[in-house]
């Protein structure tokens, strides 16, 4: 029996590091219960190989991998080589360069000449040993029943060769036995000359890619740490529910599913899995926050509490947006010392009739406060030193104090301590950095163009028309306060409806776009959200461009566990492509993906885009100084032939229409822009992005809210302090996840180094002394014990793109 090691054959670029790690954990677990797992990283059809994978494989004790896509003949002349990942970890590779099914296409009429025909003749030449593998199988075909008979005939007709039915493990063992000297390939493997890797599949079905991004962030940045905090305060960790959620995510992580290169009906199933994960996970967070919040001792004079939860291992001071239900709009927020917390009311609506009519009294003898009015208010709170991996409880105080409100402004700019943002007459944004008096012009320019591609690849039309927001009529509205200020720009885009109209330069269709820009006190991140009414246009793409002024040969982006520098132009590959375009499956474009940021940097400045939807970017412009972030693209067919970026046959079924992939609906995408006048290392982009994607979680509680708004639960003893923290860190490693251990009773904290060159150190401090702390592998087996020093351990010397997993229990 040959099983695993994967739960599903995952994509390696769009999926997060934690998703990949859990996929292997669960796959190995299940295989082992059925007799054992194949200890080879077998990925026959993933669209390229991501350079964290060697380290991940070795973390599971896997030293060998077998794959098809990403390595072409100019990269390696042989099927067997060593692959060195971004962090320096190495694994052995046994490539199947002509696909995972060539053994299945052997024709009985050609058995005598088989080894002289292609691709079999080239496969022999590419082998460093006497062992050659003909993969026999296809994901859309049954097993060959005549295989024993074919093998017998092949041996008779080809006396120089000996054919046997074997396994992947037996083949790998046989190659190793000959001890061939192997060359080393480094980094991510995305060469599309000899096989398609479908660069730009990162934006196929942008609506589903957005869900994947947000849910992956939520599971590891919010859900799992919240549940860990909850268990520390007596709330049971719902381990089986978490297993269920991850398995749903693994089903969507399968390479064609996450690629969205499937039919509309299949994508409906993918959407439903995401919806289940989203709904279950948000409810688990809500009930856990509540179960902790109601245990906190509350002074009798306060009827309404607002508890803020921090899921990162360091204190946080920032503006937090929360929705609260209050009895009056003249109120204060105070902490345990009755110190008033500054906040701004952004908007409010009277919901008295609905909420007060739903209040439930399970115990009629209990008296509790019921207001005469209830307002639903969106507020922004100036939070200071929120405890690390913990909480602080605030109180709503009815003191008839008029609080600050957002006010309309007549000027065309907003500002905080760091930046002044000005909307220019053409609708572009100018950013003035106050610290160094640097001006960034032509920011947040929307770029719309055609998409002649399909579900596998973006490809521009041969006769394209590119439109910019600077060419569109627009209106501007600005609101401001001492804590937050907002710009709203409404663009009246007119675009071609079809590719035919685009070729004819006809602008017949409206595509209204609203850009929201938000600037908060104390923040170097400028928040953007863009709403698009895409109900009419077909086959097009919308991007947003940021002119950084940084001319660079490389971009910076995060991969699964660390940071990678990618060329902004693939000089070698493009030269080879220009010489023999007919020999290439795909043009070697530089449309790439990231996990949470894409940046340009030099010695003096760093500009990073932090996407929270589609995570696809390209560095463009004459000087390669513009970051272009894809917001969405749309197309109407699963597969098409003869694309500009991918010539020849269709990758998918060219007869299957995908009208849902035109995304003819209202769309919304969010991202951040981070500017720091230092080099990349000093800008700490990885930690900034982690914080940006780990929002502080507010939870309000009042007895009068029990009803349909929140369920009534039994009262519990209030015994917790109004502040709490379960652990903290100091240092520059980034937390990947804090969660319950997979099999053991304790917890796993995983960290990684997001710098490009530095070795990093972190001190991990615990609120109460653990019984044991260990370094573990990705199976969570002990590698070594860590000595405790006053309830803390030191993790030092963690190199570039390295991760380390820590197990602790009480």
Automatic annotation (TrEMBL):
Cite the Pfam families for this sequence: Alpha-mann_mid, Glyco_hydro38C2, Glyco_hydro_38C, Glyco_hydro_38N
- Write down the superkingdom of origin: Bacteria
Q: Do the record's keywords include Amino-acid biosynthesis?
A: no
Q: Which GO terms describe its biological process?
A: mannose metabolic process; oligosaccharide catabolic process
Name the coiled-coil region(s).
Answer: none
Annotated signal peptide: none
Q: Which Gene3D superfamilies match?
A: Glycoside hydrolase 38, N terminal domain (3.20.110.10), Glycoside hydrolase family 38, central domain (1.20.1270.50), Golgi alpha-mannosidase II, domain 4 (2.70.98.30)
Sorted alphabetically, which InterPro entries does this protein's record hold?
Gal_mutarotase_sf_dom, GH38_C, Glyco_hydro/deAcase_b/a-brl, Glyco_hydro_38_C, Glyco_hydro_38_cen, Glyco_hydro_38_cen_sf, Glyco_hydro_38_N, Glyco_hydro_38_N_sf
Gene Ontology MF terms in the entry = alpha-mannosidase activity; carbohydrate binding; metal ion binding
- Domain (Glycoside hydrolase family 38 central): residue spans on this chain: 196-274
Recite the UniProt keywords alphabetically.
Glycosidase, Hydrolase, Metal-binding
PANTHER family in the record, alphabetically?
ALPHA-MANNOSIDASE 2C1 (PTHR46017), MANNOSYLGLYCERATE HYDROLASE (PTHR46017:SF2)
Q: Which family does it belong to?
A: Belongs to the glycosyl hydrolase 38 family.
Q: What is this protein called?
A: Alpha-mannosidase fructosidase
